[in-house]
Every structure is written in C-alpha cells, then in structure tokens.
Specification:
This protein is an alpha/beta fold. It has two domains: about 5-160, Multidrug-efflux Transporter Regulator, Chain: A, Domain 2, CATH 1.10.1660; about 170-290, Rossmann fold. The chain has helices at about 5-15, 15-25, 45-60, 65, 70-80, 85-100, 105-140, 145-165, 190-200, 215-225, 240-250, 280-290; strands spanning about 35, 40, 175-180, 205-210, 230, 260, 275-280. Strands 4-3-5-6-7 form a five-stranded parallel beta sheet, with helices on both faces. α7 packs across α8 (about 145-165). The longest helix has about 35 residues, at about 105-140. The chain starts with 5 loop residues before the first helix and ends with a helix. About 30% of the residues are buried.
C-alpha cells in the first residue's frame, strides 16, 4: 500500500495543507494515521477521496454538502460536471486512481476513449501532460511503487510515440533542437512530450533519449550543430549535481543555449549561467516553442 504525506495531497489537489487539516477536524471523510513521530500520512483510499472532494469543491460544491454525500452521490456529482477543465481534471483523477490500483486495463481504456473522442493532440496536451506534472511530484518523493510508475510510463510512452509518428506538419521552422536527459535521469515522458510539441511546430528534432553522458551530447553537437539543447528534469539520482552539470556543459559546449524544464526546473540553479534558460511551467514551455 502507498502512503502519502499532507504535502503530497496539497500538491496533487491544490488544496492547502492548512485547509486539509481544518477539513479533518470538521468532517469525517479523512482519517489520517500517524507515524511514531506524529506525522500524518494517508492511504490510497484517502488520496482518492480527497481528489474527488477537491474537484467538486473547486467547481462550486460546498464542503459541508459534500461531506453529507454517500459514495454513489459523490460519483454522480463528479460525472455531472460539465465545465471542460473539470472534465479534464476528472479524467486525470481517474488515471491517478487506476495507477494506484495497478488497473492498467482501465488506465489505458481512459486514454484510448479520450483519443477516440478528441484525438491524440488534445489528449496529450489536455490530459497526459497535466497528469505527468501531478504524478511527477509523487515520483520525486518516492511515494509510489516503482512498478506503478513503470507500468504507467510504458502505456503513456506508447501513446506519445504514436502521436509523434502521426504528426503531419505543413509549416517548418529552420531550427534544430537536440533533446536529451542527462546521466541519472530516466523519466522520458516529459521529454517525449516536448518532442511532440516541437515537431508539431515544424522544428527539426534530434532525440537522444534518457541517461545520456555529456560526452555523447558534445559529440553530436560537434557534428550536427543544433541551435538549442533541451532537457526535461523530473527525478535525478542522488549523486547528480545540477551545478556541476551546468558548469561542465558551459565549459565543453559553450555556444549552444540549454533550455531546462520539468519538476526540477522549479529549484533552479543557484548560479546564473550564460545561455541556460529555465522554463518552470507549461505556459513558459509553450511560449518558448512558439518563439522559435
């Protein structure tokens, strides 16, 4: 069974930890257990519950009314939400539920239904990437089992690759971007999404994939001279130093700008390096790609 901290719940739902604590005192839907050091932790079912409650609360239902609903009423109200963003968040919550339960058939079925209804393009931008941003927090904190992560990643990876292969672009941008993940980074899905966005824009992409030594990046740069390097950092091994990596990059690959996005871009380098740009949100990523 997974266990989640109150910070995990805050990050996944957008509900502040203080508010969650108040809800626990006033209502009955959350009953966290505590560690020997008196720190709250929550089980799978409590995570599912608060995801649903947070969704209804966000879209107009009072928490006091939600507390009186039984499980069937809760599901019916969630399905009845008609706001487009609410529907997207409901689907993301379903994906989180099925990931936690290791129900990969239902997980893939949700994605396939959305692809059939809205197409690969909208499924990637509206569902897959927001889902990855949310669960990436759990991956960084090691609060889900690696098997859950691997199963989910492989399914989404297949959908992203199908989307990339199926792209037909009518406009072309005279820029080349080399995509890679540095040594110790294996979370490839965010980078594949960037690949999709760049290709849809008509940008030429060189894709190196995960766990790439800097010497290999340097070798490709020497012969292909890309206009930009791009990496998407989700969760690196403990011995990786972003300071050391950036210093080595600027020493060995001086004239090619590096763009960094992903969860770890939030805690950007303490130093300012020439030609290193951090994109801390999807909107900043989209703005960068549109500017090429």
């Amino acid at each position: 069974m997974n266990s989640f901290t109150i910070k995990d719940l805050e990050n996944l739902t957008g509900i502040k930890a203080h508010t969650i604590r108040v809800w626990e005192q006033r209502y009955s839907f959350l009953k966290p257990q505590r560690t020997d050091t008196n720190i709250r932790y929550y089980c799978n079912e409590e995570l599912k519950t608060i995801l649903n409650i947070a969704l209804l609360n966000k879209y107009g239902f009072k928490i006091s009314h939600i507390d009186k609903m039984n499980e069937q009423e809760l599901r019916e109200k969630i399905v009845s939400l008609s706001h487009a963003q609410a529907c997207h968040e409901r689907i993301e919550n379903e994906l989180i539920h099925y990931m936690i339960d290791l129900d990969m058939d239902k997980f893939e079925n949700v994605l396939d239904n959305h692809i059939l209804s809205k197409g690969v393009d909208k499924t990637i931008t509206q569902i897959i990437f927001p889902f990855l941003e949310r669960v990436g927090i759990l991956w960084v904190a090691n609060n889900i089992h690696p098997v859950q992560e691997h199963l989910v990643m492989n399914i989404i990876r297949q959908k992203l690759i199908v989307g990339i292969e199926g792209l037909v672009t009518r406009s072309f941008v005279d820029k080349t971007v080399l995509l890679f993940l540095p040594e110790g980074e294996y979370h490839e899905l965010g980078l594949l999404f960037i690949y999709y966005l760049l290709k849809s824009r008509g940008v030429h992409v060189l894709y190196l994939g995960a766990n790439v030594p800097l010497k290999d990046i340097e070798f490709v740069c020497k012969y292909k001279s890309p206009d930009y390097l791009y990496t998407h950092l989700t969760c690196l091994t403990g011995n990786f130093s972003i300071e050391k990596f950036l210093a080595q990059k600027n020493l060995r690959i001086k004239n090619i700008p590096l763009v960094i996005s992903g969860q770890l871009a939030q805690s950007r380098s303490r130093k300012n390096y020439a030609s290193v740009y951090f994109k801390k949100s999807l909107s900043e990523v989209m703005e960068y790609i549109s500017s090429l």
